[in-house]
Write a structure and sequence with these properties.
The protein is mainly β. It is 13% helix and 32% strand. The protein is globular.
Length: 180
């Protein structure tokens, strides 16, 4: 399974959106250099409030660009970085990856997939009604989260738009993604 990086984004301050960059540098076991969410322990405000010593399983946030087309069709235009992701992708089924999948990006970087982003009310503050577009329920009533995946940095490196992404699945049995 492979795809392409279409945008990279980071922000050194807490803000829902993240400006696009020419490149980002991933730091092993930390996250995106200079990004507010980088670190060994949790950096997302709600998680820090619960327990600031938790390991940071949300170092790098990835979203598939195909989601933007879907929500635009429903009247919610969104551009890369606007949902707070660090890496925007095309052509790879991020939501279909299992826990522990490795994403080899460009020449050096390797991310390990930890789970699904748990979208919050900030999405509706950004665009009223958008949360219902990225979180829903399936036929059985199970919650379906579509706002991207979270990962940790196993091997650092510079990531740029146009870089290839190659997914390497872990040995089975595969565990489906859950919110982290």
């Amino acid at each position: 399974m492979s795809g392409t990086v279409t945008a990279v984004s980071s922000n050194g301050v807490y803000s829902f959106t993240k400006p696009n960059r020419d490149s980002v540098r991933l730091l092993a076991e930390l996250g995106v250099e200079g990004d507010v969410h980088a670190g060994v322990t949790v950096k997302h405000r709600s998680r820090v409030a619960q327990d600031p010593t938790q390991p940071n399983l949300r170092q790098v946030h990835l979203i598939h660009e195909e989601l933007f087309a879907e929500v635009a069709d429903a009247g919610f235009p969104v551009a890369a970085g606007e949902l707070g992701e660090n890496i925007t992708t095309r052509g790879i089924d991020l939501l279909g990856l299992p826990v522990g999948a490795l994403l080899r990006i460009g020449d050096e970087a390797v991310l390990e997939v930890t789970g699904l982003r748990n979208p919050c009310l900030q999405i509706d503050a950004f665009r009223n009604g958008l949360l219902k577009q990225v979180v829903g329920r399936d036929e059985a009533g199970n919650v379906v989260r579509r706002a991207g995946i979270m990962s940790i940095v196993r091997e650092g490196g510079t990531v740029r738009p146009g870089d290839t992404i190659e997914a390497e699945l872990p040995d089975g049995p595969h565990r489906p993604l859950e919110r982290v």
